[in-house]
Amino acid sequence: LGVDSENDLHELVVAIYPGPDGKVAEKSASGVVLIRGKFVPARINAFGQNNTLPSKTVGQHQAWEAGAFIEKLSGEKPKDDAKDAYVVAHSESLVLVVSAEFLERAVAAADRGEKAAQLPTAVSAKFAAAPQGWLYLSADAAKMPNTKQEVGVEDLSLVLGENATDLQLAVAANFVSAEKASTMRKQLQGFQALSMMGLSNDDGKSPEEKEEMGTLVELVQKIRIGGEGKQATLDLDYPADKLAQAIAKVVDKAQKSAAAPGAK
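Structure (tokenized):
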């Protein structure tokens, strides 16, 4: 497709909408994915044409059936109950992957150059601690009645980012009542305490395992649980270099385990 995955992909925006049953599941939920970067629409469309992939015309654009497109590109077959979706090489800076019911509206909005704010102002204000965010999540539980009734969450916002030295995570959830929020804060604090107890037991561990557990203990200790009234929050600042080293060790260990004789 003429896309350099390391340099040409700049931003990914995913919007998921629950189905009529209020659940987010492949067979009922719908979605819109915006991939921003550097693209060659003619080359993407030629890929679809050369492989005789099914498509339809939407305005001035060709929309390729996503299941067939992705299968031809990656070899991965779509699930039988997956909803219909389309791939549209909209411009040199935007590719859309859209559920069928949102296709015409999404293409029309892109034609008009509409670009929604990354997060609503009220949501963005919660994350001043992580201004250099690169992963954002905002969920509206009002559109998911089952979740709202069972858990009591009205909305959830998350951002993962970094400053000069630390990786930063900030999560905020608003609940239907102060009682529900208080219960969640207590549950999170209890889970944090139990995790600390479990990780503090290093009997019989090798020096390497003790070091890994020490990193996890430090990570769990740095989690800050707060909020008041109907809100519960979770914040974490952790040195990016230490986390990168820990992840590298885990990956290396997993690779060695997979390569060991008899590994499945």
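Residues 178-200 form the longest helix (23 residues). DSSP finds eight helices and eleven strands in the chain.
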